[in-house]
């Protein structure tokens, strides 16, 4: 069976020009419409990837209002469609408005069949690439790792495999990493992968609670234990009975309270503030901090015995800058999420935005990336996010020279190139200065995925 030809929808009210265009494009299945309603009906039934649209449609054949209304209707129904707008009224304002509304390209009548043919062919090519990129992104998202974390970086996959291995062992785990690297997400993933997953996951940020209240938050209090204690209240440790307690920023726990926490870890019993009765609690402790606990122990600001109780297993989490390719993957995820939430906004990243995302150091890690993408969804004027929308300087788009580095640097360079090219192998190969088959060979040799 022969392969079906790609579908091209021609929206043109001039019957003669419509026939001319039909004859000119032998490599496509031609669909034709003369009005907005006909175009939308065909779009719903046939889903053509590319549309050529005349702005002068009835009932406004001498103007552009109906053409722009048709453009908006097409992109509202099928945002991925590449719409090539034609007009006999060559005005910069019409061209600008068409592009702002999401048109893929604009050309002026009278039509040059050869030139238009090149535009149409390029539109089909780009549509196919974008469809493949969306497929790969969806594949990546459906294979989200521990705790729903999105990553393709070997550095982070190694972390998730370590956490999965220790999840089944009833030991305390310490996660070390900078703020915004996903420590709570990994802690929740550890809980969900452990035998305690049917229990409660309770999280508390020790740095966000005043010292005078932290003891009560952790251990609870009896009625009348202090002014304002009008009823007996269970603490976070008790609330996590049978489950997992996540102590975020454990390095901020004051020394007097460290003693009480150590006693719980040793004896697995607590006493509420104002209480005299020991209460047995079966809770697993997972903690995290961005502080240098080794230095704090040396300086006497963190108890050494508590450190070793909490750090039976230590997992170091790489920063976003140490996870080549993940910034681009996460950026696309956040763009999709916030564009859907806000029911508007851009649908993709311009090359300068992808280069800027790849080049930025992300000192605030994933939290900073998420905030910048949210800002871009609000600030972008068109359907595409640019570097300025992210409040970033345009990234260096120069090709990465693979010949100057060895295997370890090859891996990083390939991941950077794939991130900048939105996962497109051909574009990544051009960035790297190598052929597409060579890049496929390197991907296979280094066990990397596009």
TrEMBL record:
Residues 149-378 form the Sigma-54 factor interaction domain. Keywords: Activator, ATP-binding, DNA-binding, Nucleotide-binding, Phosphoprotein, Transcription, Transcription regulation, Two-component regulatory system. This is Two-component system NtrC family response regulator. Residues 7-124 form the Response regulatory domain. GO terms for biological process: phosphorelay signal transduction system; regulation of DNA-templated transcription. PROSITE patterns: RESPONSE_REGULATORY (PS50110), SIGMA54_INTERACT_2 (PS00676), SIGMA54_INTERACT_3 (PS00688), SIGMA54_INTERACT_4 (PS50045). PANTHER family: ALGINATE BIOSYNTHESIS TRANSCRIPTIONAL REGULATORY PROTEIN ALGB (PTHR32071:SF113), TRANSCRIPTIONAL REGULATORY PROTEIN (PTHR32071). SUPFAM superfamilies: CheY-like (SSF52172), Homeodomain-like (SSF46689), P-loop containing nucleoside triphosphate hydrolases (SSF52540). The modification 4-aspartylphosphate is found at residue 54. One of its GO terms (molecular function) is ATP binding. InterPro entries: AAA+_ATPase (IPR003593), AAA_lid_NorR (IPR058031), CheY-like_superfamily (IPR011006), Homeodomain-like_sf (IPR009057), HTH_Fis (IPR002197), P-loop_NTPase (IPR027417), PEP-CTERM_resp_reg (IPR014264), Sig_transdc_resp-reg_receiver (IPR001789). The keyword Cell wall biogenesis/degradation does not apply. Pfam families: AAA_lid_14 (PF25601), HTH_8 (PF02954), Response_reg (PF00072), Sigma54_activat (PF00158).
């Amino acid at each position: 069976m022969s392969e079906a030809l790609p579908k091209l929808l021609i929206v043109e009210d001039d019957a003669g020009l419509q026939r001319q265009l039909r004859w000119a494009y032998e490599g496509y299945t031609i669909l034709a419409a003369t009005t907005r309603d006909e175009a939308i009906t065909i779009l719903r039934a046939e889903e053509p990837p590319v549309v050529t649209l005349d702005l002068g449609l009835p009932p406004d054949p001498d103007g552009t209002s109906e053409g722009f209304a048709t453009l908006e209707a097409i992109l509202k129904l099928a945002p991925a469609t590449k719409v090539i707008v034609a007009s006999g009224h060559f005005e910069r304002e019409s061209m600008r408005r068409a592009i702002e509304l999401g048109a893929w390209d604009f050309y002026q009548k009278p039509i040059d069949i050869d030139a238009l043919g090149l535009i149409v062919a390029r539109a089909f090519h780009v549509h196919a690439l974008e469809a493949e990129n969306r497929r790969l992104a969806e594949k990546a998202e459906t294979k989200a790792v521990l705790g729903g974390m999105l990553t393709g970086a070997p550095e982070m996959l190694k972390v998730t495999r370590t956490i999965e291995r220790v999840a089944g062992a009833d030991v305390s785990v310490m996660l070390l990493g900078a703020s915004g690297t996903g420590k709570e997400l990994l802690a929740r993933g550890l809980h969900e992968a452990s035998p305690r997953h049917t229990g409660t996951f309770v999280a508390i940020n020790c740095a966000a609670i005043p010292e005078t209240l932290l003891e009560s938050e952790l251990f609870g209090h009896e009625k009348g234990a202090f002014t304002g204690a009008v009823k007996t209240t269970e603490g976070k440790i008790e609330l996590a009975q049978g489950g997992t307690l996540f102590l975020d920023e454990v390095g901020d726990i004051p020394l007097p309270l460290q003693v009480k926490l150590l006693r719980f870890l040793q004896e697995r019993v607590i006493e509420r503030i104002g209480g005299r009765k020991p209460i047995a609690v079966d809770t697993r402790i997972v903690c995290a901090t961005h502080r240098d606990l080794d230095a704090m122990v040396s300086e006497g600001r963190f108890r050494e015995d508590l450190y070793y109780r909490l750090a039976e297993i230590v997992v170091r989490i790489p920063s976003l800058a140490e996870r080549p390719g993940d910034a681009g993957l996460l950026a696309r995820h956040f763009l999709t999420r916030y564009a859907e939430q806000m029911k508007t906004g851009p649908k993709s990243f311009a090359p300068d935005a992808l280069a800027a995302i790849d080049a930025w150091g992300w000192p605030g890690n994933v939290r900073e990336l998420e905030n910048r993408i949210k800002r871009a969804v609000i600030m972008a004027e068109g359907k595409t996010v640019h570097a300025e929308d992210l409040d970033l300087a345009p990234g260096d788009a120069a090709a990465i020279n693979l010949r100057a580095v060895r295997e370890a640097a090859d891996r990083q360079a390939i991941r950077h190139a794939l991130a900048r090219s939105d996962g497109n192998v051909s574009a990544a190969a051009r960035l790297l200065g190598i052929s597409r088959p060579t890049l496929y060979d390197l991907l296979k040799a280094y066990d990397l995925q596009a």
